[in-house]
TrEMBL record:
Residues 18-133 form the AAA domain. Residues 175-335 form the DUF4143 domain. This is DUF4143 domain-containing protein. It comes from the Bacteria. InterPro entries: AAA_14, DUF4143, P-loop_NTPase.
Length: 388
């Protein structure tokens, strides 16, 4: 197993809360992580039909038997169990009673908010970060390899070709989560919708245009976007909310939680094809956004991450806010060659936000880290400098 940065935070929260919930996309390594982190706990997977039926048939007896130091995996499959879990937790009132994990965030969080609010700490495990791969001495040969391969543990550790892994991943996700658990009936149309979303990576989201391209209603497009977000497939990055006297674009940008999946949906068959792809810059920008999110989530925090674009088309790729104020302004360039022009928008807009060169970053495709009079230049392997 490649060590996960989230482990330390998860162990510390288990000493404070009766239950810890770990959620994230399918195949992100949740089951492996909870078993490795809590080796003395009883592991129960509610994917097992017999076990699931036992839990649903007599939930009180089930929880009387498994009332402490238990991992309940894919727990969203047994929604009726949550109200009984509340009683079991309150009866013992001890930290670390249950570790709950699941892949369907919408269903899982719905049950938690109804029954376990205040009793459970919630963490998210996304696919492997660049930092985790580097720590495990599995750094990709090139940035294009990282964009193409993505971060899902199984293909990286088992040597599965992404061209084989991702089509099967999508089929399983759509059959199990979209069709079976969320009741989407237009499966073929949903698959098309997912593919077209990949062509919008890093772009300002126009839901009406997206709906028209898929021949569905805008309401359906919004519903399906919510499903993709709840499943940790895509996320929306919102524009910065302070206008500083500027007219700002109000629509969010669309990104994928894994660039490997996005690249596969775009028809990429090898990392070499990314070199000449029109999507290369957008995918690298996507990778940086997710790397920032992963770094924050590894310490149990959600980053205040935004983008800026005004009516004059002046843009800053990312703004990280702390304490209600902008902390860092970031421009992303996929080229491995640094050019001072990369700071052009930062020099124009960052002073308006009160950000001096020390808080202006260009993240490029190279490996060197250095300071300039315009700001700091780093690669993806130094994104951790932006956390904390």
């Amino acid at each position: 197993m490649i060590p996960r940065e989230l482990t330390t935070k998860m162990l510390s929260l288990a000493k404070l809360f009766p239950a810890v919930t770990l959620t994230g996309p399918r195949q992100s390594g949740k089951s492996t992580l909870v078993q490795e982190a809590f080796p003395d706990y009883r592991y129960l997977s509610l994917e097992d039909e017999d076990l699931r039926e036992t839990a649903l048939d007599d939930p009180r007896a089930f929880l009387d038997r498994y009332d402490s130091h238990v991992i309940l995996d894919e727990v969203q499959r047994t929604p009726a169990l949550f109200s009984y879990l509340q009683g079991a937790i309150d009866r013992r009132n001890e930290p670390g009673q249950y570790i709950l994990s699941g892949s369907q965030n919408f269903l899982l969080m719905q049950r938690i908010s109804q029954s376990l609010a205040g009793r459970v700490a919630v963490l998210h495990l996304l696919p492997l970060s660049y930092a985790e791969l580097a720590t495990a001495h599995r750094t990709p040969r090139t940035i294009d390899d990282f964009l193409f391969d993505g971060g899902y543990p199984r293909p990286l550790t088992m040597g599965i070709d992404p061209a084989d892994f991702f089509p099967n991943y999508v089929k399983t996700y759509i059959d199990r989560d979209v069709r079976a658990e969320l009741g989407v009936k237009k499966v073929s149309e949903f698959n098309t919708f997912l593919t077209i979303c990949a062509t919008r990576v890093g772009e300002v989201l126009n839901v009406t245009s997206l709906a028209n391209d898929c021949d569905i209603s805008t309401d359906t497009a919004r519903d399906w976007l919510s499903i993709l977000e709840a499943s940790f497939i895509v996320f929306r990055l919102h524009p910065y909310h302070r206008n500083y006297g500027k007219r700002l674009i109000k629509a969010p940008k669309l990104y994928f939680y894994d660039t490997g999946l996005a690249a596969n949906l775009l028809g990429m068959e090898s990392s070499e094809q990314l070199l000449t792809s029109q999507y290369r810059g957008n995918l690298y920008e996507n990778a940086i956004a997710v790397e920032i999110i992963k770094q924050y989530q590894a310490i149990g925090r959600e980053p205040k991450l935004f983008y800026w674009r005004d009516s004059n088309q002046k843009e800053i790729d990312f703004i990280i806010e702390k304490g209600g104020q902008p902390k860092y302004a970031i421009e992303v360039k996929s080229s491995s060659t640094y050019r001072p022009k990369a700071f052009e928008n930062l020099e124009d807009l960052a002073p308006v936000m009160g950000l001096d060169p020390e808080h202006r970053f260009v993240i490029y495709g190279g490996n060197e880290t250095f300071e300039t009079r315009h700001g700091q230049v780093i690669g993806i392997d130094n994104v951790n400098e932006l956390v904390g």
